[in-house]
Design brief:
Elements (H helix, E strand, L loop, with lengths): L8 E3 L9 E8 L5 E8 L19 H14 L21 E3 L14 E4 L6
Antiparallel strand pairs: 1-5, 2-3, 4-5
Length: 122
Amino acid sequence: MLQKLGMWTLVELPQGHNIMANKWVFKQKADRHFKARLMLKASHKKYGVDYNETFSPVARLNPLCILFAIAALEDWEIHSMDVKSAFLNRDLEEETYMEQPVAFICRGKRTKYAAFTSPSMA
């Protein structure tokens, strides 16, 4: 999905920028399917220097219970959906560089780094 959406381009590392390491996290779901995620190891990043905020949207249980209660009272239909790769749609304010992920290393470009930029920054 990352490659298909063109989430990074391979570039030389600009002077003064840090490189983020990455790792693959594999998980087996309840339906016996496997899920793979590419995670950045950002432990060496410094708040205010390399990033300014982190955000992970999470639904809280209380508002969902209220929504379901109102839907039951009003005889509403409830539909659900799963948005795959929703995290890929956020604009970045910082330039971010990481090592090429294992299994995605391009031949002849081993010394290049994956640069993540927002469409508005390109």
